[in-house]
Amino acid sequence: MLDIRPNCECCDKDLPTDSTEAMICSYECTFCRDCVADLLNNVCPNCGGGFSLRPVRPRHSYRDGVSVIHQPASEERVHTRYSTPELQSFSDDIKHISPAER
């Protein structure tokens, strides 16, 4: 089950469970749409993979016990350990390779 992390690891923007701005890689690294497009060039700075829109966890239990009420999102804020120049350099090196080929 996804952690549903509460923030962009780069700019620290809040990304609540119903955000349509949250992007994740296959390891659940979480960034906002702006950072993915403008800074990271669709390159996860942690694993080198690409990003997809993070699914929204339902607010209401349409099936018994299945909703954000029963499986709450993570409250742990995660921040990248890399500086902006390091992020840009890393993504510049591999952004020309499609995510499926990385």
UniProtKB/TrEMBL annotation:
Q: Where are the transmembrane segments?
A: none
Map out region (Disordered) in residue numbers: 70-102
Which Pfam families does the annotation name?
A: DUF1272
Comp. bias (Polar residues):
81-91
Q: Native species of this protein?
A: Marinomonas transparens
All copies of the RING-type domain together span: 8-47
Identification of the protein by name: DUF1272 domain-containing protein
Ranges of Basic and acidic residues composition bias in the record = 92-102
Task: Return the InterPro entries for the record.
Answer: DUF1272, Znf_RING
